[in-house]
Amino acid sequence: MTEPRTILVDCRGMACPGPITEVARAYRKAQNGDILDILATDSAFTSDINAWVRATKNELIGLEENAGVIRASVKIIAKKQ
Amino acid sequence: MRRILVLGGGTAGTLVANLLARELGAEIMKGDVEITLLDEDGNHVFQPNLLYTSFKGMKPEKIVRPEKKLLHKRINFSIDRVTKINFTNNKVITESNKTYIYDDLIIAVGSKIARDEILGFDEANLDFHSSQENALKVWERIQEIRKGKVVVGVSAFPHKCPPAPVEAAFLLEEFFKKRKLKDNVEIHFITPISRPYPDPTISNTIERHFKERGIIIHPFFNIDRVDSEKKIIYSLEGTDLEFEAMFVVPPHKAPQAIIDSKIGDEDGWIPTDKYTLLVNGQKNVYAIGDVADLRTSKSGVTAHLEAVVVARNIIADIRQTGERCKFTGRTHCPMDVGYGKALFVISTYDKAAKDAKPTRRNLLMKKAFAQMYWTAVGGSLEWLFDRYFGEDARECFIEEPI
Fold first, then answer.
1. What share of chain B is helix, strand, coil (3-state, %, to 5)?
2. Residue B362 and residue B80: Cα distance in Å, rounded?
3. DSSP of A16-48
4. In degrees rounded to 5, what are phi and psi of residue B18?
5. In terms of CA atoms, which chain B residue is nearest residue A76?
6. Which residues of A are catalytic?
7. What span, in angstroms and rounded, lies between the C-alpha atoms of B191 and B221?
8. Which residue in chain A is spatially nearest to B238 when comparing CA positions?
9. Distance between CA B289 and CA B204 in Å, rounded?
């Protein structure tokens, strides 16, 4: 078991479903305790990440929008190891 | 002598080479231009029809032709796998240890199935998406199914032919219904995202039809591993799915030569300008078709439209006409929903797809496109496609002299 990491998932400029598929890709490599720090500009991303967190039972610890960039922080807690 | 080198003999590579050879006849005859196309196996498969081999029993030999027969006689053609591309020296090296020097390079090597990406996937899954042999195995397998869960869908994005997983679900439902097995066979559709199709409008239409036909959707289902003996798919999200048969589109990545040459991203998709189709940072290298990292569909029609843009820009550059064309990201993906009907997913970079109703006319058009394919890839039907797509496929203009 390695130390928890913060994994940057930069999806700026990607259109739907780019950001949420990048999240799934990062999730494949992540471990419980890791934080996914996701940046996106696609407006559909806010609803997608909320739905993804609900479906996967991980924890959304931050969601904000600044100058057209959505930043979501997700703590991975529900992954089967 | 201007050396134009095309890598890959799929839709994009074959069409761009043929368009250049047809238009630049005089320059080629004079020895001012040379066109070479390299292909790894010399066979050209009309991939959209793999779906019909898999789920309708179309004979696989009907969907393949020798690449050489599709190419204009002015094109130099070799069957040789590319192993390394070097932008700095304008060089391409092949498996047979030949070196090709280019002035213009068009990379159209397509995508590959990443078989080992998911543990157990390849042992359990039958893939209707990558070869005639596999498609035929799917057709043989579905004859044996009498009951249980049949799982179709998407393992990862991006993949070629976006409608294909959905079409597989629709055609399987039709198959089992016609054989009166519908009460015993459940069709389950898995997808890594929240809906069955990336475009939300088209997705709504699909969800409606899936519901009517009893196809069960599993959103946010990312395959972690597959146990082929117990016949269980385990997801990263913690849900497990038992299956009788599994026909899921595998993960894709770019061919190994692209990854080895370090000219793509982590999976090998080449960063490409979405309008000019020039590889980012390059003035004489284009990426078209599946291998480009464009935010449009990895499909035959899109590859076709990209090939035309690149051919016109190279021709304009050679003849110094000042014309410049920009690709619009146009898609035109037919989606067979079964029972003789289809819809088209039509969009551009700037225009999302509109809601589309499945009709018999659309399926006839899909079949007509398929019939025309072998002629179209030769480049002689552009007058027809120009009329059909119009300015929606590209924006062309004359560049003002500075």
1. 35, 30, 40
2. 39
3. TTHHHHHHHHHHHH--TT-EEEEEE--TTHHHH
4. -65, -40
5. B237
6. 16
7. 5
8. A80
9. 28
A55 at interface of B, judged by CB pairs closer than 8 A: yes
Selecting from B158, B194, B222 the residue whose C-beta is nearest the C-beta of A51 gives: B194
Question: For helices B200-212 and B164-178, what crossing angle results, to 10°?
Answer: 10
Of the pLDDT bands very low, low, confident and very high (cuts 50, 70, 90), residue A81 is low
Q: Are the C-beta atoms of residues A62 and A34 closer than 8 Å to each other?
A: no
Nearest-neighbour CA in chain A from B238: distance (Å): 6
Alpha-carbon gap, residue B202 to B13, rounded angstroms: 30
Spatial separation of the C-alpha atoms in residues B367 and B361, rounded to whole Å = 10
Q: Where are the alpha helices (DSSP H) in B226-278?
A: 256-260
What secondary structure does DSSP assign to B148-188, as a single string? EEEEEEESSSS-SSTTHHHHHHHHHHHHHHHTT-TTTEEEE
State whether B157 and A78 contact (CB < 8 Å): no
CB contact under 8 A, B157 and A79: no
Tokens of B72: 């204009």
CA nearest to B108, candidates B131, B82, B130: B82
Q: What is the pLDDT of residues B1-15, one digit of tens each?
A: 999 999 999 999 999
Q: What's the pLDDT tens digit per position in B195-252?
A: 999 888 999 999 999 999 999 999 999 999 999 999 999 998 888 999 999 999 999 9
Give chain A positions within 8 Å (CB) of B238.
56-57, 78-80
* Other beta carbons within 10 Å of B3: 16
Residue ranges and CATH numbers for the domains of chain A are 6-75 (3.30.110.40)
**Is the bond leading into B66 cis (omega within 30 degrees of zero)?**
no
The Cα–Cα gap between B134 and B137 comes to 5
Q: What is the largest CA-CA distance in chain A?
A: 38
Residue with tokens 């391409």: B92
Reading the block at residue B363, the tokens are 């399926």
Q: What is the ipTM of this complex?
A: 0.81
Q: Which helix or strand (DSSP H or E) is residue B304 part of?
A: helix B300-319
Of A17, A48, A51, the CB nearest to B157: A17
CB contact under 8 A, A80 and B295: no
What CA–CA distances, in Å, run from B256 to A28, B44, B261?
22, 20, 8
Enumerate domains of chain B plus CATH numbers: 2-111+254-398 (3.50.50.60), 115-252 (3.50.50.60)
For the whole prediction, is pTM greater than 0.90? yes
Largest separation between any pair of C-alpha atoms in chain B: 71
